[in-house]
């Protein structure tokens, strides 16, 4: 980039830097965003298709989860990366509705491009979009129905809606039951926020999807440390220790001089006695099962086996915390401080072989605040997609319980919003009303995409849905199997309110941000300077740049 100053070019940007301005910059950014939206649009709804992603290492991911697809795609364009951020935010916040958020953002930009061509200033469009989004939250809030933690049927419908169209759909009945049961177990009275991290998903290829099960406690992907230990312990008292059952090396470099064989023997005897003391402390506390975060010495393993204690070593820190909240025990720093009141409890601790590998099942815990779900499936890809579906189901169930409100799915909420926003636009007046109308048209992309993916005529379906809503059928959405407007509350297609509001806010904020960009200055990749040349490839203090 060079500016003329008295006939001498002043070089401002580096050589190879690229600058795009005005309508050209806007068009490129909008095109990149629309391309991303188009990439995930076909995955939407019960009849949405999957994508197969193959990375440079040849690893394969098969999914229709919007966030996963965009994460796996190696995207380079800066505006496209902003679309990926929408999916990431949606996934982090509510766990579902990632495709919806991205598709709405793409459509908002598409409609904004039409307004740009009509001479509407981008900031006017942006403020109109923000007004429309604010009104949309109000409308959604007024149309939302309440849900109580005891209403398991509604919670199951919400979990099932999030799983519909996913690879996990084949056994969605079983999976939704597990998801709802798991979330209700970990929900604590009086605590508004539900941390779904307390539901551990353990994957093991093999068996079939129907073998997936909920463990009322914890599942540890390890075996016993010694074959002489019991395989099963009933009504187990459990000790959780995060230090090693080993003789620790000294912190400083210490030298021990041994001059006779007797000294050697007494030195080894002392080590043995120390290990025996550690095991004795475990036994005297009443513990029958020991989970250790670090290592357990071979000799200590032998003593533990002799005392009939089932021990597991190198359990990772997050599993230790979950074990504590599942069994009601405390994670202790040293073996010496184990007290009977610090022990956790479980109905049964058992080592079982799953998929050819040993796993420890800590089951039948009283009132566990951490639970596990063992996911099974024919192949690794099936189990991975099952995990993604399960994650979505857990997150939306937690969202519904936290907020206590849900709305109709199947495009019903979007059609209702579009209808009310068009009415609102005429009352606002001014040029902003064009942007509010564009917003109303844009959110209808969801029912339109549902119809397209199901092989139905999108125009016919939109007309039928609009007339149903104008006739006062607030919850009429698209039944893609019958190809007609249907009451979504009766068919059980419902979503948490927060999934919708978060999708709208992420989409609106990103679309308005992309819309306001009229200048893109992209630096070139750094090149190593040639030998003897100063950095920048020219004279010291001069950056080289391309003309514009």
Structure overview:
Helix 1 runs antiparallel to helix 4, helix 3 crosses helix 4 and helix 4 packs antiparallel against helix 13. Helix content is about 45%, strand content about 20%. The C terminus is likely disordered. The strands form 7 sheets. Strands 9, 10, 11, 12, 13, 14 and 15 form a 7-stranded mixed sheet that branches. The protein folds into 3 domains: about 210 residues, GROEL, domain 1 (Orthogonal Bundle), CATH 1.10.560; about 100 residues, GROEL, domain 2 (2-Layer Sandwich), CATH 3.30.260.10; about 150 residues, GroEL, CATH 3.50.7.10. The chain contains 17 helices and 21 strands. It is an alpha+beta fold and about 550 residues long.
Which features characterize this protein?
21 strands, seven-stranded mixed beta sheet, GroEL, alpha+beta, 3 domains, single chain, 548 residues, elongated, GROEL, domain 2, disordered C terminus, three-stranded antiparallel beta sheet, GROEL, domain 1
Write a concise synopsis of the structure shown.
With 548 residues, the chain is α+β, with helices and mostly antiparallel strands. The protein is built from 17 helices and 21 strands.
Topology, element by element:
Layout: E1 2-5, E2 8-11, E3 18-21, H1 22-41, E4 51-54, E5 60-63, H2 66-72, H3 78-93, H4 98-117, H5 122-143, E6 145-146, H6 152-163, H7 172-186, E7 199-205, E8 213-215, E9 218-220, E10 232-241, H8 261-284, E11 289-292, H9 298-306, E12 310-312, H10 317-327, E13 331-332, E14 344-354, E15 357-363, E16 371-377, H11 380-403, E17 405-408, H12 412-428, H13 432-443, H14 445-453, H15 458-470, E18 476-479, E19 484-487, H16 488-491, E20 494-496, H17 497-515, E21 519-522
Parallel strand pairs: 7-16, 10-11, 10-13, 11-12
Antiparallel strand pairs: 1-2, 3-21, 4-5, 6-17, 8-16, 9-15, 10-14, 14-15, 17-20, 18-19
Helix pairs in contact: 1-3, 1-4, 2-3, 3-4, 3-17, 4-13, 4-17, 5-12, 5-13, 5-17, 6-7, 6-11, 7-11, 8-9, 12-13, 12-15, 14-15
